Amino acid sequence: MKINQEKLLTDLISRGIDSGFIKSYVHTDNPSSTEIKKSIFNEVMGEINRYFDFESTESIRDRYPANVEGSKEFNEINSLESKSLPKVDRRIGGC
Predict the structure, then answer these.
(1) Would you say 19 and 50 are in contact if contact means Cβ atoms under 8 Å apart?
(2) Which of 56, 64, 72, 76 is deepest in the core (most CB within 10 A)?
(3) What is residue 86's DSSP assignment?
(4) Chain mean position to CA 8
């Protein structure tokens, strides 16, 4: 028997995104995009860590500094929020 790693990761990430988005609204009716991203990140990593052992004593905060408020990486990612994104045509076939 062989594990389909891609399917497993896809399922874990999808679950983490869903639960992270929902949890970002637990304490507020209007979370900032930063709060939503942090919540999603934490939930995705939590789902992955339930099934995969990274064999490290580092915490998620140490391995992923982009999620630590005040870090250079965190500030760079969140500065992208102020930039406007191009409009995307989401209709089927792009019509």
Answers:
(1) no
(2) 64
(3) P
(4) 16
